[in-house]
Specification:
alpha/beta, globular, proline dehydrogenase activity, eight-stranded parallel β-barrel, TIM Barrel, Proline_DH_dom, binds flavin-adenine dinucleotide, about 300 residues, EC 1.5.5.2, 12 helices, Proline_oxidase, flavoprotein
Length: about 300
């Protein structure tokens, strides 16, 4: 209840106050911040995926600028030998303004990543974007089979059939690469499962489908139950290490993260940076069960 009230007032809170809670989820505002956080994670035997913040833009000029920023970070990753890849949100390249322009900007990025033997993951946004994002992924994957992957959301009712439909792209030489997450956007019940355990059950069902069909799985979750069930599945199905990785968000559940690394699994952390941190971090704050406590403390305890 308290979390719900705070969720509603978050957008109206002073940016400075929101930053106090947000900074744990964001590497910083600049490229150098993103590189430094990535290097520190690499030093802990953790790979990264970089996300430049910004989404749902309103002009294509912004899309071009975003494309250029990604080109720069790809260059710097190679020059600095950082172990990691790149995550992109199609709406930051104008998906909802001009789909073809968005495709072309994203193609530039994937082409650049391919030239460096790297990889780009297409984040999945809200349900209005799913068909278009799958379509862009299909086109890019056909041209760059080793260099592009997609996110799928276990809470969507359609996800299992999307996986089945995309299976036609899967090959032994280039297993299709998915990140599986629960899904973060607020969706109507007609579109998304709502029950906590129901979403977990679908998550595990989707993961099993990926393993059975020899797809590469990025297991993106901080839910200890899902981590343990996934590890059990990996053992029971004898899944080789080159067919999966675990993924977590910057600043979330570092102890659980470390325990997975210590057990010898590949871990990748999603490292967001940039000036447009407000939308990303308020979504994260709403997920943090301790958020209400922290915010009330900060408001009253000086
Ligand atoms: P939850 O049940 O939400 O969390 C499990 C536990 O983790 C909580 O009980 C709590 O202890 C801890 N926890 C979770 N979140 C926080 C937090 N913010 N602060 C502190 N503790 C926390 N969603 C999309 O819709 N599209 C994407 O492209 C996408 N990409 C993602 C990439 C990665 C690498 C990850 C890890 C998540 C991504 N997500 C994406 C978000 C995802 O869909 C979930 O909303 C998010 O991961 C929370 O779900 P959970 O599985 O961690 O389980």
């Amino acid at each position: 209840m308290l979390n719900k009230i705070i969720s509603n007032i978050l957008p109206y809170m002073p940016k400075k106050l929101v930053w106090v809670f947000s900074k744990r989820y964001i590497a910083g505002e600049t490229l150098e911040d993103g590189l430094l956080a990535s290097k520190l994670l690499n030093a802990k035997n953790i790979e990264v995926t970089i996300d430049i913040l910004g989404e749902f833009i309103s002009t294509l000029e912004e899309a071009e600028q975003n494309r250029n920023e990604y080109m720069e970070v790809i260059e710097r990753f190679t020059a600095d030998k950082i172990r990691g890849n790149f995550s992109v949100k199609p709406t930051m390249f104008g998906l909802l303004i001009d789909k073809e322009a968005c495709y072309n900007y994203m193609r530039d990025i994937v082409k650049m990543a391919a030239s460096k033997n790297s990889f780009v993951r297409i984040d999945m946004e809200d349900s209005q974007c799913v068909d278009m994002e799958i379509d862009i992924f299909r086109r890019l994957r056909t041209e760059f089979p080793a260099n592009v992957g997609l996110v799928v959301q276990a809470y969507l009712r359609r996800t299992k059939s999307d996986l089945e439909a995309l299976n036609d792209l899967n090959t032994a030489a280039h297993p299709i690469s998915f990140r599986l997450c629960k899904g973060i956007y607020i969706e109507p019940e007609s579109v998304a499962y709502k029950g906590y355990q129901e979403i977990r059950d679908h998550y595990l069902d989707d993961l099993r489908y990926m393993f059975e069909n020899k797809m590469y799985a990025g297991i993106a979750t901080h839910d200890k139950y899902l981590v343990e069930e996934a590890q059990k599945m990996i053992r029971e199905m004898n899944i080789p290490k080159n067919m999966y990785e675990f993924q977590m968000l910057y600043g979330v559940t570092p102890e659980l993260r470390q325990s997975i690394v210590d057990e010898g699994h590949l871990m990748r952390v999603y490292v967001p940076y940039g000036q447009k941190w407000f939308n990303y971090s308020t979504r994260r704050l709403k997920e943090n069960p301790k958020m209400a406590q922290h915010i009330i403390k900060a408001l009253f305890v000086r």
